Amino acid sequence: MPGESFYLCTPIFYVNDVPHIGHAYTEVAADILTRWHRQSGDDTWLLTGTDEHGQKILRTAVANDTTPKAWADKLVTDAWLPLLETIDIRNDDFIRTSEERHEKAVLIFLQKLHDDGFIYKGEYEGYYCVGCEEYKQLDDLMETPEGDFAGQLVCKIHGRPVEVLKETNYFFRMSQFQQALLDLYETRPDFIQPASVRNEIISFVKQGLNDLSISRSSFDWGIQIPWDHSHVLYVWFDALLNYITAIGYGTDDEEFRRRWPAIQIVGKDIARFHAVIWPAMLMAAGLEVPKHVFGHGWLLVGGEKMSKSKLTGIAPNEITDTFGSDAFRYYFMRAVSFGQDGSFNWEDLSARYQSELANGFGNLASRVVAMVTRYYAGELPAPAEYSEPDLAIQRVVADAVAKADAAMQLFAIHEAVAAIWTIVDELNGYITIQEPWVLAKNDETRARLGTVLYTAAEGLRALAVLLSPVIPKATATLWDALGAGTLGTLDDQLIPAAGEWGQLPAGSAVSPLEALFPRIEQEAEATAG
């Protein structure tokens, strides 16, 4: 029987351009959390996808002399699906808002809100940022004193001028849900995380909510309003619904009940959409709000958020081509406190790769496997009586399992990885102190040698299980080298049981192991330069 539902959604990403490492950062975090819960016995489902409607897509397509659908198809095929492969994302579904299954369910949702009186027709005039696909308040804008846009009001996020729009639109009665939202935030303080994002959202809602314009009549690239085909649905109202349309809302009630509600991992810049507009929409439809909305920080380059419009984005393959996907995944989850902003620089990535992955973890694995091969012809020795240093390693492993799991439940991925890494550090210290190469010289210490190497191998087994959600390729290679296949596949190992000692059978065939993280000083320096 599957365990508790763990349905995690990334935002769906806009296909007006190719992905950068900020998008990959979100995907990796979501993937690690889902893999962890999957290996904890939960009924997991990871959804990601692309947002393909709206004015920005239309303009980009026209600029590239093609149709919006053809442009979206090209970007999805050439850039967004390959991204998932590049960084080893194991998503269960990929939703596109141009798909029929999405549009069909959106129309059901929209008609319900209209029939229940939550949608009305009215006039709207305001500032609109095409980059954000969002109407802006004056507080969201700034006047630029110089440059190409001197004297104009520009979006604080995109740095580009906003447009003044005046239209007859359909509106969602979002203002009716102001108090219900504030009550939600108070009764479920962990609904929005981290605290910095929660406080910003509460402050925003307390200022008062306006009704939301949810249609546009000046262009036609979007889902038509079912009762008025001269209007298309506002792109954000359309996009947010993907989280329920992908799991059967309106079409597969059993699957929908199995999965919903979701956990939403988003960038903090779109937290308002997910923690204000989205729960208000769900309340209006009589549906449960998400379990959590977690707004993670930005990846900064030169002190600025990465941006396609400002040309500060770094393509993920610029990193993975040199360092590999495991290093990409590890670095961003270790170097950046999940939930806070983090700065990226090549020197720090290269340094952590060498010291932590190559020298710390990779060298540990290679040494242990090499010594079992050399001293026991590749057959894992049976341990004799455990002494205090051996028992200390067992306690370190058990403690790391508990601390890492507690951190993952709180979305503190960086803390979980740090807790797991204590095993790496302690095992390296253990081998240095126990000196198995000295024990191997004397028949009288042969039994002790077997215990030391078995302890080290068992520690590596636990590391393979605990780190498999983070660095899946290296841990799969290590799992095979340890001869751990007799325990089942690495994916089948339950994380809560990782600290149970003595799982590797004595006599297991240990095979030679090439460097898990090869030294790449020359290549890394060339990339950093």
From TrEMBL:
The keyword Secreted does not apply. One of its GO terms (molecular function) is metal ion binding. A motif ('HIGH' region) lies at residues 13-23. Residues 381-525 form the Methionyl-tRNA synthetase anticodon-binding domain. Keywords: Aminoacyl-tRNA synthetase, ATP-binding, Cytoplasm, Ligase, Metal-binding, Nucleotide-binding, Protein biosynthesis, Zinc. The keyword Chloroplast does not apply. InterPro entries: Anticodon_Met, Met-tRNA_synth, Met-tRNA_synth_2, Methionyl/Leucyl_tRNA_Synth, MetRS_core, Rossmann-like_a/b/a_fold, tRNAsynth_Ia_anticodon-bd. Residues 7-368 form the Methionyl/Leucyl tRNA synthetase domain. Its EC number is 6.1.1.10. Zn(2+) binds at C129, C132, C155, H158. It catalyses: tRNA(Met) + L-methionine + ATP = L-methionyl-tRNA(Met) + AMP + diphosphate. It comes from the Bacteria. Its main location: cytoplasm. It is found in: Cytoplasm. GO terms for biological process: methionyl-tRNA aminoacylation. Binds 1 zinc ion per subunit. It holds the Pfam family tRNA-synt_1g. A motif ('KMSKS' region) lies at residues 305-309. Gene3D superfamilies: 2.170.220.10, HUPs, Isoleucyl-tRNA Synthetase, Domain 1. HAMAP family: Met_tRNA_synth_type2. Belongs to the class-I aminoacyl-tRNA synthetase family. MetG type 2A subfamily. This is Methionine--tRNA ligase. It comes from Galbitalea soli.
